Amino acid sequence: MASKTQVGFIGLGNMGKPMAKNLIKHGYPVIATDIFPESCKELQELGAQILETPADVADKADRIITMLPSSPNVIEVYTGLNGILKKVKKGSLLIDSSTIDPAVSKEMAAASEKMGAVFMDAPVSGGVGAANSGKLTFMVGGVEEEFTAAKELLSCMGANIMYCGQIGTGQAAKICNNMLLAIGMIGTAETMNLGIRLGLDPKLLATVLNMSSGRCWSSDTYNPVPGVMEGVPSANNYQGGFGTTLMTKDLGLAQNAATNTKTPVPLGSVAHQLYRMMCARSYASKDFSSVFQFLREEEGQ
Amino acid sequence: MASKTQVGFIGLGNMGKPMAKNLIKHGYPVIATDIFPESCKELQELGAQILETPADVADKADRIITMLPSSPNVIEVYTGLNGILKKVKKGSLLIDSSTIDPAVSKEMAAASEKMGAVFMDAPVSGGVGAANSGKLTFMVGGVEEEFTAAKELLSCMGANIMYCGQIGTGQAAKICNNMLLAIGMIGTAETMNLGIRLGLDPKLLATVLNMSSGRCWSSDTYNPVPGVMEGVPSANNYQGGFGTTLMTKDLGLAQNAATNTKTPVPLGSVAHQLYRMMCARSYASKDFSSVFQFLREEEGQ
Amino acid sequence: MASKTQVGFIGLGNMGKPMAKNLIKHGYPVIATDIFPESCKELQELGAQILETPADVADKADRIITMLPSSPNVIEVYTGLNGILKKVKKGSLLIDSSTIDPAVSKEMAAASEKMGAVFMDAPVSGGVGAANSGKLTFMVGGVEEEFTAAKELLSCMGANIMYCGQIGTGQAAKICNNMLLAIGMIGTAETMNLGIRLGLDPKLLATVLNMSSGRCWSSDTYNPVPGVMEGVPSANNYQGGFGTTLMTKDLGLAQNAATNTKTPVPLGSVAHQLYRMMCARSYASKDFSSVFQFLREEEGQ
Amino acid sequence: MASKTQVGFIGLGNMGKPMAKNLIKHGYPVIATDIFPESCKELQELGAQILETPADVADKADRIITMLPSSPNVIEVYTGLNGILKKVKKGSLLIDSSTIDPAVSKEMAAASEKMGAVFMDAPVSGGVGAANSGKLTFMVGGVEEEFTAAKELLSCMGANIMYCGQIGTGQAAKICNNMLLAIGMIGTAETMNLGIRLGLDPKLLATVLNMSSGRCWSSDTYNPVPGVMEGVPSANNYQGGFGTTLMTKDLGLAQNAATNTKTPVPLGSVAHQLYRMMCARSYASKDFSSVFQFLREEEGQ
Predict the structure, then answer these.
(1) Which of A271, C209, C258, D170 could link D141 by a cystine bridge, Cβ 3.0 to 4.6 Å?
(2) pLDDT tens figures, C110-126
């Protein structure tokens, strides 16, 4: 088997680390860095080469994947003093899997292009479990000609690799999905709560909704009411899953995108505000389906 | 074949007329009335006996189905001067398929019980098409022992007959479903609009959502964006389907039920207000998925 | 001084009791009743005659004031088995100071008219303090010819007696004012909170708002931020004042009135939902300006 | 009289031009520029010196005022290729009266400091009328030691010059005020509309609100209902005043600031969305009080 060429990986957090491991499993030599040296050890033991800075990584590898918490981190890692673009090679392929503002993705793409490199946005859905099992969904935006090259790498880490269009559309698809998800989840939570108060059995109500036009992913796959389904966070005191803080961040990105494009998002805005209020209480680290509990609290108790 | 006993039917509107016809098709002699004499003619030609008032119907038939526009009509038809309860026979089964406030259903049940009759609420979903083809879904609330008797009749008109629990829970299930439906529809409309403004192709975005956690009935079965699906109102200038005015009425019922039970329904409330605003414009008689068009209108045009 | 004729008073709660006392102070012989016998004692000691039922009161007095918690109580006290209308004298003047649905006021007026009596709605603003000091504001709806007679009595208990128009408009004015009050209070709370997080001193921000177009009663007279003003509930841990539960009730009435008249009230609806959520937490018995505290809770604490 | 030193002025739009004229009236030699040469003519005829670029202005004047439409314009005028900071003199005082994101004000202040200059944010309220008459209100953020120097210039153009605190707090005060203003205006509009539908006379209702706790600037100074007040946009078909588009822009800034500081602004968000919807219709260029008309449209018409 011909040896594969090196791949750079920057950002070894909860998501990035298992993603990088899956690249190694698929035979790619990985050159990685992270601001927390301890995050690098585990990868080093698996054979990855650890360097000091993003610039160092860009000096060695011409295909780089980044997985970072938010827009400012992406800006720093690409255009900072020791950023990728300081030493990026001409013709490099830079894939950012962070979930950030699509406008920032466009800026990074423009800055990369000036250096002769190609930048694509490829945010993921699926969470830590899917990252571990290599079953992530990637939503990819950027120059279509480069999609095949990107897909080769992303397929090591994900089960669905979807091309969404021009630069930024990967981010757009991601934040659109999550905005609708938040609306559906809050809607399911308030509907289930109302039905219960009106005397309906929660399992029966879920069955009715799921056979009818009220059906949605939050009602049929991830029901927020304890006792209705097994194997979901609501069955486990809202542990695990997709945290309220992360959902709130994505709703903030959706709100920014809507403001910038002058798009009215009335329910998306209210959903954002409700998750914001939950973050300030005991729900910050619970799964986002705990909005049922937030709305459920009863008067006079 | 033994001849079947007579069934009363009160309310021969867009929904009631085809429902009564299906009873006749199944061999039930129908005794009907409606405040508009002309609505009765068609049924009379099919063999139905037409009487003057609800009281007259109750005098002849001990199983009666009512299908009326709103709570005040139901109160009038049951407890009015010429209402059913003036002449109802002991042991009669009264089934109300109107969509009304569950609190009114409970009042009618209590008033019926005083006269020795049994009242059940059995609102429908499915629209005129399903009424014609006998494929309605009935959500039934009331004394469980009477459900079998009710089901025998309702099966002539519907494909799904669901027992929901005590009196009023049929209405509860109906308005819960429609509240979540409205939230999902508006959410889908604003999400699709945002995605399009961010550069995504609408069909592609629908595909992404439907494979992901944003999936809901409004995105995968009744998509509100023209060009995404065929055979839905959005493909036909929002003609037909479920009118904005009717959805607004149901959201008003959901809001009342929520206020009465002190249940917070933040997205349900905003959805109600948005459909209310649409009613005052050119959207009143369009399908409720036209909320996409309402939100879509672009600045500077 | 000629002795004054008797006045009936039904409902001796937190508001009703001091109102009835003020009638006695002004020399009116009072005939009262309340479902809680203990509420009557204090008034009996001041010389009021206590009777068993509203009907008994109507049998003796031809001017009656009612002050009750909600619509069902009003319906019971007027049209119940022992209600006022069972024994009301022709030509009686019935003044209801409860805050209820204007539609119920209209029903009571119609029922009273059938018995030859005149019913007026006259809800109050001002709270327990103003009730004690006889400084309430009364908003009066009903036949204009009777306003002078009503004003004579109401002036013993209030400083402002405003004629608002036909029956129900007193209630309408009350719930309109309280809906706008709730919107202004929540708006002030979120604005002050945002300003503080952006680095503004709260007192300075209040000064800027109050000199500018953001000014409202909640910012300049009843500021919800502790430390900005003295002598308001926010200066006293939100004790006293106008309770969150009462505000929520009034917002429910406003919502019902809006639904019934097909009026869009987007901010009124969201305000209702927010106060509803507060009721289920520790804010139920606090002043409604505690919405600042509700919104203020900080993330990560 | 000793001659005054030159003042730079960049941005000669609807607001900037009358502001610059007032500086000239007060005896200041003005050096100005604008991207539209025709905007400069009028000022040139009054004696102002017109230069090509912001950099040119900075080369001549060590006190500069900028008045620009939005954040990107400010970034360009300060840090662009021909921006102020290319040729700014050490010790210069740079005052930005644009309404922009406070985060951008902070960036500009930091960039200015690197060049040895002082940047202050000083957005205005009062509109074109106040700009003409020199009666603007300035809300000023920045180093307190420089406030006296800033005030000397701003006093030529405004009646109230308020020091708000550290850099960005001028913007913060401005967007806070306008967010509360929008909430109060929409609240007043929906309340007046509800009251009218409930049978109240609009003038009477305004009187009741203004004597009560519902009172706000939008109800007592700028009432949105035609016929209630004179000399306001609602009396003139919503011509003039503060345009819906501008209010929507400010609500977008408030939303961004809230998202960035993790502050819940539920009513501010909904207000933003409603004005956004109005922008897409015929209300874009009308005064923002036309929200009454937007909500007022009646069903079935």
Answers:
(1) D170
(2) 999 999 999 999 999 98
Contact B269 C270 (CB under 8 A): yes
A279/C299 CB distance under 8 A: yes
Q: Which residues fall within 8 angstroms of residue A114, CB to CB, at 6 or more apart?
A: none
Question: Is A262 marked active-site?
Answer: no
Inter-residue contact B112 to B85 (CB < 8 Å): yes
Task: Name residue, tokens 């979807």.
Answer: A162
Contact C125 D211 (CB under 8 A): no
pLDDT digit string, tens, across residues C2-40: 578 999 999 999 999 999 999 999 999 999 999 988 889
Q: Residue B92 — left, alpha, or beta (φ > 0 → left; ψ -120 to 50 → alpha)?
A: beta
Contact list in D for residue C218 (CB cut-off 8 A) is 213
Identify all chain D residues contacting C299, using CB atoms and an 8 Å cutoff: 262
Pairing verdict, β A136-141 and A158-165 = parallel
Q: Is C90 exposed, middle or buried (0-12, 13-18, 19+ CB in 10 A)?
A: exposed
Cα distances (angstroms) measured from residue D196 to each of B26, C107, C169, D219:
52, 20, 10, 14
Task: Name the pTM for this structure.
Answer: 0.94
Chain C interface disruption, residue of A281, A295, A299, most C CBs within 10 A:
A299
Q: What is the dihedral of CA D28, D29, D34, D36, to 10 degrees?
A: 110
CA–CA min distance D144, chain C (Å): 14
Of C256, C263, C273, the CB nearest to B256: C256
Kindly report the nearest CA distance between residue C93 and chain D, in angstroms.
22
Chain D hits for B295, Cβ within 8 Å? 277
CA angle C210, C211, C217 (to 5 degrees): 25
Q: Please state whether beta strands D63-66 and A7-10 pair in parallel, antiparallel, or not at all (unpaired).
A: unpaired
Q: Average pLDDT over chain A, rounded to whole?
A: 95
Chain-centroid distance of CA A24 in Å reads 21
Report which of B139, B103, B69 is spatially closest to residue B257, judged by C-alpha positions.
B103
Show the domains of chain D with their CATH numbers.
Answer: 7-167 (3.40.50.720), 172-296 (1.10.1040.10)
- DSSP secondary structure of chain B: -PPPPPEEEE--STTHHHHHHHHHHTT--EEEE-SSHHHHHHHHHTT-EE-SSHHHHHHH-SEEEE--SSHHHHHHHHHSTT-HHHHPPTT-EEEE-S---HHHHHHHHHHHHHTT-EEEE--EESHHHHHHHT-EEEEEES-GGGHHHHHHHHTTTEEEEEEEESTTHHHHHHHHHHHHHHHHHHHHHHHHHHHHHTT--HHHHHHHHHHSTT-BHHHHTS--STTT-SSSGGGGTT-SSSBHHHHHHHHHHHHHHHHHTT---HHHHHHHHHHHHHHTTTTTTSBGGGHHHHHH--TT-
> Would you state the pLDDT for residue B240?
86
Q: Which tens digits make up the pLDDT trace of C35-72?
A: 988 889 999 999 999 999 999 999 999 999 999 999 99
The torsion angles phi and psi of B64, rounded to 5 degrees, stand at -130, 140
* Contact (Cβ atoms closer than 8 angstroms) between residue B160 and residue B46: no
Place of tokens 């609290």: A297
Alpha carbon of B217: minimum distance to chain C alpha carbons (Å): 26
Rounded distance between C-alpha atoms, residue B209 and residue B186, angstroms: 15
Tell me how far apart the alpha carbons of residues D85 and D114 are, in angstroms, rounded to a whole number: 9
Distance between CA atoms of residues C19 and C16, nearest Å: 5
In the block, residue with structure tokens 């019934």 = C260
Indicate the burial class of D301 (C-beta count within 10 angstroms; 0-12, 13-18, 19 or more).
exposed
- Locate the chain D residue with the closest alpha carbon to B271: D270
Neighbours of chain C (3+ CB pairs under 8 A): A, B, D
Contacts of C300 in chain A (CB under 8 A): 284
Active-site residue, from C174, C249, C262, C286: C174
